[in-house]
């Protein structure tokens, strides 16, 4: 993307994510040759390409359950979208009216209550570097849009929003009513929703007797079972080249998530500005190209989506400590200068695409 580029439209995003599908964290040729036992459907939801693959089920059943998963994703997208008209936009409009003397009160659909409670818990574990309350900062930078222009916001406005220190701790839940006291809070669950959707889809598929599937939402992937007794294999996108940096086997109940500066970004005067905003400064994080984590067990999808954000923002000096706080043992960190670091547990699983690079291994 060039500095003079005037933004990225939906059609180009579809093309970009289709390319990502071909090269990273997706099934691609790794699914070839499975014959009639494999059913795969794609859609465009959550602003990204979604891919659901079911193995070993009759075609009619596989299509039925996959259709339902995609319908659920679409409904969740409209509920949780941060800027299109819908539930979250309505709630944000009410929260903006809050004052310390007169808190804002917004009725919530029951399904949003556990999401906000869980997001608050994970935000605290990640020292609020994953902070779904900074939607105003994300919007100020122009990333609350399907297309955006390469421009820098007013530094004084950045300073004002950072000083307001919006966090999910500014909110409380009374029954199904959300109470807000800080008008600077604007909810943006973009760093949470895809992982949560993975967990819901996995639970639904299991309830329908589907034991083997791979669910992919724009590179956030959760595996169920295997592919004919063979573990699912996924690739990790190279953040600066078309193609995979490495690949690994993903086992039953595991989820993999990546945060990178190569999906939503713009360049201005030779510098890259990505959508991952550091709440401490109000500026896009610039110490990493990409961070990939693996999570497992209950809530694996959600954790894999959330945990990569604090590690990306924390940078080389903070990610190992933050990974331990968040409970993720498998991490691959690509620094801004391209240097690689990984936990020992992750390094042992990686198959490099080409000669093995130098990797700093940590516990």
Short recap of the structure:
With 363 residues, the chain is α+β, with helices and mostly antiparallel strands.
Could you walk me through the main structural features you see in this protein, from its secondary elements to its overall organization?
The chain is 32% helix and 25% strand. It is an alpha+beta fold and 363 residues long. The protein folds into 2 domains: 10-79 and 204-362, T-fold (Roll), CATH 3.10.520; 82-180, T-fold (Orthogonal Bundle), CATH 1.10.3980.10. β11 and β12 (271-274) form a beta hairpin. α2 packs antiparallel against α7 (193-207), α7 runs antiparallel to α8 (300-314) and α8 (300-314) runs antiparallel to α9. The radius of gyration is 20 Å and the shape is globular. The two termini are 36 Å apart.
